[in-house]
TrEMBL record:
It comes from Pedobacter zeae. InterPro entries: HTH_HxlR, WH-like_DNA-bd_sf, WH_DNA-bd_sf. Coiled coil: none annotated. The lineage of its organism: Bacteria, Pseudomonadati, Bacteroidota, Sphingobacteriia, Sphingobacteriales. This is HTH hxlR-type domain-containing protein. The keyword ATP-binding does not apply. Keywords: DNA-binding, Transcription, Transcription regulation.
Length: 130
């Protein structure tokens, strides 16, 4: 945890005040967050489905990324009624739904400028929007 009066924290606060883009990028930064949001938008809305869709992510990291997305109100965690044991699903909020086309555009941009380093999830994003 960073100290509130550290140089990094002060610089971060300044950047957030200067431009909302910095805040937006901070909300979705993290190696897996964009893939998680996209995967939920495609119906992989339970922990085990996300883990299956993203096999290289550890359960600990997946849980942390989901909590952070929930903290930023991009997803909500909802209990599935009448399941034993009780089930949880992740649902995109309006903010999360609005984020999906932004991720698709970023994916297009990355495909154009990432020197051929497109990944399958990114390609799926682009193809699903057309």
């Amino acid at each position: 945890m960073r100290k509130e009066n550290s140089t990094n924290a002060i610089n971060e606060q300044f950047l957030f005040q200067v431009c909302e883009l910095n805040s937006a990028i901070a909300m979705i930064s993290g190696r897996w967050k964009s893939q998680i949001v996209y995967s939920i938008s495609q119906g992989n809305n339970r922990f085990h489905l996300l883990k299956k869709e993203l096999p290289n992510i550890s359960e600990q990291v997946l849980g942390r990324q989901l909590r952070e997305l929930e903290t930023h109100a991009i997803i909500i965690k909802r209990e599935i009624p009448e399941t034993v044991p009780s089930g949880i699903e992740y649902v995109l909020t309006n903010k999360g739904i609005d984020l999906v086309p932004v991720l698709e555009k970023l994916c297009d941009w990355g495909k154009t400028y990432a020197d051929g380093k497109a990944i399958a999830v990114c390609s799926d994003l682009i193809n699903s929007s057309r």
